[in-house]
Design goal:
With 401 residues, the chain is α/β, with parallel strands linked by helices. The protein has helices at residues 23-27, 49-58, 80-83, 94-97, 121-133, 166-172, 188-204, 228-231, 242-254, 306-314, 319-323, 344-347, 379-395; strands at 39-44, 64-71, 102-103, 114-117, 137-140, 181-184, 207-216, 257-259, 265-267, 276-283, 290-298, 333-335, 356-363, 369-375. The chain has a domain at 26-187 and 383-395: NAD(P)-binding Rossmann-like Domain (Rossmann fold), CATH 3.40.50. The protein is globular and about 60 Å long. It starts with 22 loop residues before the first helix and ends in a 6-residue tail after the last helix. The structure holds NADPH dihydro-nicotinamide-adenine-dinucleotide phosphate and aspartyl phosphate (PHD). The active site is at residues 188, 290.
Length: 401
């Protein structure tokens, strides 16, 4: 059997993105940007698992140029190759080889129009707030501000409409901000799931309930993560805080934004059509790539058939593609027909880790439909989402030189 989309041979792990083959770049070349100049970006937490992926993805970016790298005081002052324990299979990009790691202080990133954060959550709260207060645009992977009622939690293929809350965030700040804000992306397991779920809601109306069981890669916990003696030959059926994050974040992302009587915007948390979510999260001995088994029930009766679901997922397109984000993949969702796919080892680098892979779409005897989804936790689950969010921000005129 064949797959619904032609997929390239899986690239060697983590090769730098080749933007020259992006179909969108031809349509939206660099000179289409506001003033034609590359946009300076910084990376906080640049030495970590997510930070390294940022550097790999940004090294050849057509709009963004790496300008400043930050990490802990342990790393600050060192050349990046000395500070980092480089764990990517591609070589450390030339652009980062001579850079000196800075402390994560806003004044050291003042020239950056965009700051990506891959900071440890223990320190992200305070540091990201200080960067926002210095009127810098922060795109964060950390969990700290995801529940903030004025901070959008954006999965770029799903809810870029949530950018509309940003002005309110800036005005609520004391003093009000002109350019600074925080945008977060979601927990890596949440991200992989909401992409196909949003495609289903778009095609068939609201979901009523869903059950999700994850099998999450070791790299999700950062480096060095779970001790080898705990994870080899084993499954750990607990990831602290993960189930609660998935259950809550899905509602914020899949929900809309309402305008109150006073004109203020608020996230509706899917309240108009309540959605019940139950998540069970497991750590498995896979290096990269979070897999999730999902069963859903639709509000609308009768529910769609597996074939209708398959067609909706294959046909899914999103703003990040149509607007022309250079890092958006040709297909946000790849649908497999083979009975034993997706698999992390085979499918996690599909489209450089920017797409998600779905398979085993079938009837569920308890709810309506069940399927499997695989997402690269470090790419679309983290760095790639942040980068596409920043590309959307450029196209929406929210950031720029
Ligand atoms: N790994 C994944 O798949 C995903 C991770 N995330 C989130 O992204 C963030 C980064 O995760 P990950 O890369 O895995 O984590 P790592 O532990 O691999 O990296 C953490 C980074 O934070 C820096 N840091 C630690 N302490 C400080 C400090 N006091 N001041 C400034 N910088 C500091 C570290 O610098 P140094 O090297 O100098 O210590 C390092 O660069 C976390 O919030 C995580 O929850 C989100 C989605 C997926
Ligand atoms: N907790 C996730 C990764 C992560 O860091 O999540 P969050 O950004 O929601 O804290 C995992 O272990 O796979």
């Amino acid at each position: 059997m064949t797959s619904s989309h032609l997929r390239p041979t899986p690239a060697a792990d983590n090769q730098p993105t080749d933007f020259s083959s992006s179909p969108l770049l031809a349509k939206y070349p660099r000179h289409n940007m506001q003033d034609g100049a590359a946009i300076k970006v910084g990376v906080l937490g640049a030495t970590g698992t997510v930070g390294q992926r940022f550097i790999t993805l940004l090294a050849n970016h057509p709009w963004f140029v790496l300008h400043a790298l930050g990490a802990s005081p342990r790393s600050a002052g060192k050349r990046y190759p000395v500070a980092v324990n480089w764990k990517q299979t591609s070589r450390l990009p030339a652009v980062a080889r001579e850079m000196i790691v800075r402390e994560c202080k806003p004044e050291l990133f003042a020239d950056c129009a965009v700051v990506f954060s891959g900071l440890d959550a223990d320190v992200a709260g305070e540091i990201e707030a200080a960067f926002r207060a210095a009127d810098l645009a922060v795109f964060s992977n950390a969990k700290n501000y995801r529940r903030d009622p004025l901070v959008p939690l954006i999965v770029p293929y799903v809810n870029p409409s949530h950018f509309s809350i940003l002005r309110q965030q800036q005005l609520a700040h004391s003093p009000p901000l002109k350019k600074g804000f925080i945008i977060t992306n979601a927990n890596c397991s949440t991200t992989g799931c909401v992409i196909p779920l949003s495609a289903l809601e778009k095609a068939f109306g609201p979901l009523e309930s869903l059950l999700v069981t994850t099998m999450q890669a070791i790299s999700g916990g950062g480096y060095p993560g779970v001790p080898s003696l705990d994870i080899m030959d084993n499954i750990v059926p607990f990831i602290s805080g993960e189930e609660e994050k998935m259950e809550w974040e899905m509602l914020k992302i899949l929900g809309g934004i309402v305008k109150n009587d006073d004109g203020a915007r608020a996230f509706d948390m899917h309240a108009r059509t309540p959605l019940r979510v139950s998540a069970s999260c497991n750590r498995v001995p896979v290096i990269d790539g979070h897999t999730a088994c999902i069963s859903v029930r639709f509000s609308r009766r009768p529910p769609p058939s597996p074939q209708q679901v398959r067609e909706a997922l294959v046909g899914f397109t999103c703003d990040a593609q149509t607007l022309g984000c250079p890092s958006a993949p040709r297909h946000a969702i790849s649908v497999h027909e083979e009975p034993d796919r997706p698999q992390p080892r085979l499918d996690r680098y599909y489209q450089d880790g920017a797409g998600v892979s779905v398979g085993r779409i079938r009837q569920c005897q308890v709810l309506d439909i069940k399927f499997v989804v695989l997402a690269n936790n470090v790419s679309i689950g983290a760095a790639t989402s942040s980068i596409i969010n920043a590309e959307l921000a450029v196209l929406k005129g929210v950031v720029g030189n």
